[in-house]
Amino acid sequence: MNADLPLARRDQIAARLADGQPVVAATLAREFGVSEDAIRRDLRALAAEGRCRRVYGGALPCTPAFSPVSARAEQDGPLKQALARAAATLVQPGELIFLDSGSTPLALVDALPDEFELTVATHAIDIAAAVLRRPGMKLVMLGGCVDPVVGGALDATTAQGLAQLNIDRCFLGACAVSASRGLSAQHAADAAFKRLLLQASPHSTVLVTADKFSARAPHRIAPAEAVQCFVLSPEAPAAEADALQALGCSLLRAAAT
Amino acid sequence: MNADLPLARRDQIAARLADGQPVVAATLAREFGVSEDAIRRDLRALAAEGRCRRVYGGALPCTPAFSPVSARAEQDGPLKQALARAAATLVQPGELIFLDSGSTPLALVDALPDEFELTVATHAIDIAAAVLRRPGMKLVMLGGCVDPVVGGALDATTAQGLAQLNIDRCFLGACAVSASRGLSAQHAADAAFKRLLLQASPHSTVLVTADKFSARAPHRIAPAEAVQCFVLSPEAPAAEADALQALGCSLLRAAAT
DNA sequence: CCACACAATGCACGTTTATGCACGTTTACA
DNA sequence: TGTAAACGTGCATAAACGTGCATTGTGTGG
Questions:
Q1: pTM of the predicted model as reported, rounded to 2 decimal places
Q2: A7 Cβ within 7 A of any nucleic strand C atom
Q3: Tell me, in Å, how far CA of B37 is from C1' of D12?
Q4: What count of Cα atoms within 13 Å lies in the side-chain half-sphere of residue A129?
Q5: pLDDT (tens digit, 9 = 90+) per residue, B92-150?
């Protein structure tokens, strides 16, 4: 991280707490490269200001509620995080990556490395909010009328904004995946947008939880071979995986949780 | 790199701080080829002008880039909610309202009536997220490169998107308010956007907490008479309120908490 | 041309602050 | 109930701090 100003460290810890994240003293000590004593002093000071609640092993935010991302990430949790970690290995420093809407791409935000100077583009509100919490990343928001179901902008303006980006890589969530029927989505507008996104990206990755293979969805996005890489969970059926590979798609297996 | 003018050095340091970068005294001393004493004097001067926060080892930007909106979100809770409730009474059914970035407009989202079939437009990520949680509202998101300090899109694309909206009413937060100096903002791009927003709206309302009257900010947005209505907190100084009214602005007092 | 004010700087001094380590105590968990 | 980790406290150290003072360079008025 950047400058080792003591108070800056304290601010960063305070920011995490204000964000609703609990902090662990030992972890922070390693992360900031100082002894646990120093961290404990910080936490004590913050607690004295009423900015957190001191507990054995670390500290908790004084307002424990309300933290949309972390809550969701915890709950849907380990599986999507594992997919996200695997997908994050594909990203190269300095790239402009586009994150599609959905909880799996959302998990990817927290898995992206800090030091890569990435630019993240998205049309999804919750993903933008998550990126905003990551210091080192630039954020480009696509505007338009927001579809309340998808949680992101989805209209002609959005498509137009997409066309103005030089995307290096995109990550999609899909409603349904099959080697024979390709990718499908629940909503027509969402499918159309994903189709444009695939066309606009020289390299596209789809994050797939195992249940997506058995799912059906009405709107065809593209054939599977339009995607360069699929990230699969460990319990994905081998038959489907082999079929995707036979189409020329590369596969990435997430580590078992 | 360096002209030897001392003031030029101070300006460069100020520029970095305005950019959100923390600075380390020892590093700056080596970089500019002067003693740490000189740097410390600069930092002290800048801090005295309110342009940074002095800390042990260097200085931090007064609005740290890394803990953007989340930290200041709920600090003045009840007060801002009271302002929001007062402002919400101005809204008419079916309108397209634009919400500026800031914690006060954010509070307004939850105060808006459900049954009015409103369309809310914004360029701020957190406000969009809040609107998304309200069922009966339509949401229009303005896109563009997102300013991490403001927490919303702020570039030419955003301005263009604004021009394509038929806004009925807009609600602004301001960094500083004064009858004589008008509205001011901390950041140039933010000020420019607010200026466009005022021009694009037939009716504009500014939500003002009492501390905004004593605050200073470098970038002038518009004179106070460019705003139709100010919503004031109960403890706002009467002198300032009278001065605003003398300029032809209507006032709305929030109920005491 | 000189004297002087003035601002910026570097240096020396004593003071404050943050840190790490050592010690004994408390806490969580098996 | 026992154990290991986390805790708080005291102390020593090094870095950063503020202040006062001498030096330098520049511009101005006598």
A1: 0.71
A2: yes
A3: 26
A4: 22
A5: 989 999 999 988 899 999 999 888 889 999 999 999 999 998 888 999 999 999 998 88
